Recover the amino acids of this structure.
């Protein structure tokens, strides 16, 4: 009896597997699906009710999340206004930072540097704002156009104005090397990555719109490793491009789908996570072949993956930013969840 | 009008006119203490009063538009903060005022009245020391078109725009120096000993306008150009004790000096493209002029100290984000000749500078 049951289960599993292989993907699905094959699944949980919102406080689309050295969680959200909210390590709400700030209009990403300064990247004002750990503005990069002088967004086929050293065009993310040099992914409008010194003085930049090596098509996320190499999520080109500290192209990883969000763990052995997020327009055709997160060595070796698209706890609703300060605790900001998840990985030893 | 279209040419000119002046050593103090949950935006204007209180007119953002039946109406976007002589926050003046759209400058007159100049509402507003509105000058356009560039009927920013209603004359061409009571992107205000009011006007109109102390229009002079008495982006204005008028003619890389009636006297060059000037009071006045960097450059940024004959006495600072660097200085207060308050657009801060 018992044996027959297990044979039956095996048969069902075999049929299921065959049917998946038999399915033909649409061309759009083929483009969106990660090329990596036979990637082991990493078991994981999602912590229920991680961030506790007080009554009357709401997240909108959560596009940014980052933790500091104490485990505090910073959430950058497109609410009625764009807001930056701080929670403690238990998920208790602490305070709001930058309420009504000149630089807050349409959130895109938040990161915390090694000194626990908080950096907000706002694509509605084209500003990058550095806050002290207490929430005081320490430095601002970029320039918000004066009202009435907002450049008209170029249409399709119209070249954007040439990139300027100190002005962004819907920039997306920020990272630092060990010297404190600043890297900005810029972005939807400018298709480049810019390097500044720690005082915000322009050093160099790389990239223009395109798909050749070194060109970018929506550099949407970036992270730097301990050697100062810069990993750029070149989202629409479905690849991560790795640049050295002078922004010379080193290599590309193109088997993990569209990198919406990347992060690199700290410590002596660093790992790279990249999310092949399901699309923010809830396109079910593409959603069927996306939504997973990859764990990689810095050299691009794929170690495992986890996650699938969906609205339930432990499923992902368009990951837009990830924090991986701890190798096995990934905090995700998800556009279509209007919330944050804390994912605990249980990799097999 | 786009400020960006002028930048390249102006930067090149500014670079060719570098003066060799001795460096002045200086300190910077992070003086103003913002309360929790309040933030400075672009510090367009800064000024002190006789008690040492510091006023900051800042672009805090999020001007918003409301829709009428056929026009859009804009509100907000800038705030006027007051701090005491120790840098402690005192309060806000003109909160939710009709005129506060895009801060350009603030000045305090000898009677401690506080004057703001707003680039977008094209208003100059005089507040009493206690914060009451004493006198608005110019008129805010009834409707400021929201969206891409250009103006709808009755909208726009031309001097005619504020008149509203049917039959309003079309605004004169930008830079024509149109006389009258209406401003088009004004930049700064100053007074002579009699209380006459001088307004640099400005981004759109390229003239200087003189009013009596009661706000009655007397005359104006200038139009866009580079001849003596013409202006290309007059960004800042100051008077000396004799009533001479100094105009920072930024786009022409010079400070023009006029007598009290607007007759051209001389010009001071060799200090880059001055975006902010001030003249200290007292028996030994000095003139400060900032060769401010543009938002897409970290070239220049130094501030010059001159005597009123235009002789450069020294210079200090450079462009940048760090302390003791300057990010697009838009206004300088020099009530005390060696203790300056510097408002920066690019760094969203005011530095208190002590010169040695």
């Amino acid at each position: 009896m018992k044996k027959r049951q297990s044979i039956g289960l095996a048969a069902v599993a075999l049929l299921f597997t065959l049917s998946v292989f038999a399915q033909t993907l649409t061309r759009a699905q083929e483009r969106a699906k990660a090329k990596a094959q036979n990637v082991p699944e990493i078991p994981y949980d999602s912590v229920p009710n991680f961030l506790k919102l007080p009554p009357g406080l709401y997240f909108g689309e959560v596009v940014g999340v980052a933790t500091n050295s104490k485990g505090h969680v910073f959430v950058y959200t497109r609410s009625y206004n764009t807001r930056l909210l701080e929670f403690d390590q238990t998920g208790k709400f602490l305070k709001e930072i930058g309420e009504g700030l000149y630089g807050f209009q349409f959130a895109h990403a938040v990161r915390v540097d090694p000194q626990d300064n908080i950096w907000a990247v706002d694509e509605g004002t084209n500003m990058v704002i550095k806050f002290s750990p207490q929430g005081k503005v320490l430095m601002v990069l970029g320039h918000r156009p004066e009202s009435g002088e907002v450049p008209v967004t170029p249409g399709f086929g119209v070249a954007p104005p040439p990139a300027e050293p100190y002005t962004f065009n819907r920039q997306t993310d920020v990272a630092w090397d060990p010297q404190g040099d600043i890297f900005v992914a810029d972005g939807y409008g400018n298709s480049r990555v810019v390097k500044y010194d720690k005082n915000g003085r322009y050093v160099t930049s790389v990239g223009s719109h395109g798909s050749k090596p070194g060109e970018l098509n929506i550099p949407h996320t970036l992270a730097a490793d301990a050697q100062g190499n810069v990993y750029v999520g070149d989202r629409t080109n479905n690849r991560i491009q790795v640049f050295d500290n002078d922004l010379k192209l080193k290599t590309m990883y193109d088997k993990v789908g569209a990198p919406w969000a990347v992060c690199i763990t700290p410590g002596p052995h660093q790992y790279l996570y990249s999310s092949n997020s399901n699309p923010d327009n809830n396109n079910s055709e593409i959603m069927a072949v996306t939504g997973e997160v990859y764990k990689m060595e810095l050299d691009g070796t794929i170690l495992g993956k986890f996650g699938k698209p969906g609205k339930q706890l432990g499923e992902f609703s368009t990951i837009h930013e990830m924090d991986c300060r701890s190798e096995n605790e990934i905090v995700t900001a998800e556009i279509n969840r209007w919330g944050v998840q804390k994912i605990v990985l249980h990799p097999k030893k | 009008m786009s400020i960006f279209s002028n930048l390249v040419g102006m930067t090149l000119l500014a670079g060719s006119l570098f003066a060799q002046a001795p460096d002045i050593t200086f300190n910077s103090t992070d003086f103003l203490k913002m309360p929790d949950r309040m933030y400075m935006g672009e510090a367009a204007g800064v000024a002190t009063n006789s008690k040492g209180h510091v006023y900051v007119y800042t672009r805090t953002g999020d001007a918003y538009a409301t829709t009428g039946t056929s026009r859009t109406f804009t509100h907000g976007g800038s705030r006027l903060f007051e701090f005491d002589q120790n840098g402690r926050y005192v309060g806000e003046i003109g909160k939710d005022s009709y005129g506060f759209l895009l801060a350009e400058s603030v000045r305090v007159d000898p009677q401690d009245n506080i004057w703001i100049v707003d680039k977008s509402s094209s208003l100059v507003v005089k507040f009493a020391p206690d914060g009451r509105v004493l006198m608005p000058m110019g008129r805010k356009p009834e409707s400021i078109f929201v969206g891409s560039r250009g103006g709808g009927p009755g909208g726009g920013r031309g001097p005619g725009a504020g008149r509203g209603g049917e039959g309003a004359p079309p605004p004169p061409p930008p830079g024509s120096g149109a006389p009258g009571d209406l401003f088009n992107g004004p930049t700064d205000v100053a007074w002579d000993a009699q209380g006459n009011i001088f307004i640099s006007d400005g981004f759109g109109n390229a003239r200087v306008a003189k009013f009596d102390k009661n706000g009655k229009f007397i005359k104006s002079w200038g139009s866009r150009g580079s001849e003596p008495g013409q202006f290309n982006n007059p960004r800042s204005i100051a008077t000396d004790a004799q009533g001479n008028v100094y105009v920072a003619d930024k786009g022409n890389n010079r400070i023009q000096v006029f007598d009290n009636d607007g007759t051209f006297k001389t010009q001071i060059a060799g200090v880059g493209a001055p975006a902010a000037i001030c003249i200290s009071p007292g028996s030994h006045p000095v003139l400060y002029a900032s060769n401010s960097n543009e938002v897409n450059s970290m070239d220049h940024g130094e501030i010059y100290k001159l005597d009123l004959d235009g002789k450069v006495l020294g210079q200090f600072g450079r462009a940048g984000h760090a302390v003791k660097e300057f990010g697009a200085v838009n206004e300088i207060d020099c009530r005390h000749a060696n203790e300056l308050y510097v408002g920066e657009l690019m760094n969203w801060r005011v530095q208190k500078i002590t010169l040695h």
